[in-house]
Amino acid sequence: MLEHAAVAATASPLLQVRGLTLEYRADRQRIRATHEVSFQVQQADRFVLLGASGCGKSSLLKAIAGFVPASAGDILLDGQAVHGPGPDRVVVFQEFDQLPPWKTVLDNVAFGLLASRQCARDEALQRAGEALATVGLARFADAYPHQLSGGMKQRVAIARALAMRPRVLLMDEPFAALDALTRRSLQEELLRLWQELRFTLIFVTHAIDEALLVGNRILLLSPHPGRVRAELDAATFGLHNAGSEAFQTQQQRIHRLLFEPAR
Ligand SMILES: Nc1ncnc2c1ncn2[C@@H]1O[C@H](COP(=O)(O)OP(=O)(O)OP(=O)(O)O)[C@@H](O)[C@H]1O
């Protein structure tokens, strides 16, 4: 009996997005960002939302984070409806200015833990130090954000998110503003961290190669308003075969799925 319960528990998705329509009101107009989008994310998935600019990827991520309310449909985390932000969902954004500049790197990483009252100051600082070590920045604990490169700031943002030990780590084009070499090294770093910690990741990108590299599952969204066009298994693609013939063929296939009119 217990065994059955355990099997059922592991089989149920961590996150369910069901028929989600998101709309904004601007100048007495209603802008529909997504239309009846549904998908499920399992524990330890690296789930990528991929689509052209304006298809509603960020809106979906913000809705999961609890910043944008559903116009229709719902979002369930561990079976519970999401109604607002919470420390169980942490977002890493693209912008380098997401770190308060007056706080040291260590205080920046500890900040979320203290603000959400997850732990007392000593424990927060200890967890922050561990998270910084995980991303290779222990030496920069006392530095300030302006003393770091763009890539290092993103590493700090990732450390801050991981220190929270969220149920789902949400990343909104986190490497898009970095140069190609730094982007690749952070993609590698993210995958290494995932190997080590097996967190659940929802990752937004408009770059097909990045989606194949980072994700084990990819949700393709059609242009504005975003609808689900397809869901692909990408587990066979990664750093080991990036740029290979199979990788490029899959890239082209995804490109066609995204940009050719649906039949
Ligand atoms: N705060 C807002 N107010 C009004 N409209 C918005 C707002 N945020 C997004 N939109 C609109 O919703 C649609 C989806 O935007 P969203 O940013 O989610 O797309 P995206 O796929 O993430 O795009 P990009 O890749 O360019 O960031 C767009 O038409 C956008 O103009």
From TrEMBL:
<keyword id="KW-0472">Membrane</keyword>
<dbReference type="InterPro" id="IPR003593">
    <property type="entry name" value="AAA+_ATPase"/>
</dbReference>
<dbReference type="GO" id="GO:0005524">
    <property type="term" value="F:ATP binding"/>
</dbReference>
<keyword id="KW-0067">ATP-binding</keyword>
<dbReference type="Pfam" id="PF00005">
    <property type="entry name" value="ABC_tran"/>
</dbReference>
<dbReference type="InterPro" id="IPR003439">
    <property type="entry name" value="ABC_transporter-like_ATP-bd"/>
</dbReference>
<comment type="similarity">
    <text>Belongs to the ABC transporter superfamily.</text>
</comment>
<dbReference type="InterPro" id="IPR017871">
    <property type="entry name" value="ABC_transporter-like_CS"/>
</dbReference>
<keyword id="KW-1003">Cell membrane</keyword>
<keyword id="KW-0813">Transport</keyword>
<feature type="domain" description="ABC transporter">
    <location>
        <begin position="17"/>
        <end position="248"/>
    </location>
</feature>
<protein>
    <submittedName>
        <fullName>ABC transporter ATP-binding protein</fullName>
    </submittedName>
</protein>
<keyword id="KW-0547">Nucleotide-binding</keyword>
<dbReference type="InterPro" id="IPR050166">
    <property type="entry name" value="ABC_transporter_ATP-bind"/>
</dbReference>
<dbReference type="InterPro" id="IPR027417">
    <property type="entry name" value="P-loop_NTPase"/>
</dbReference>
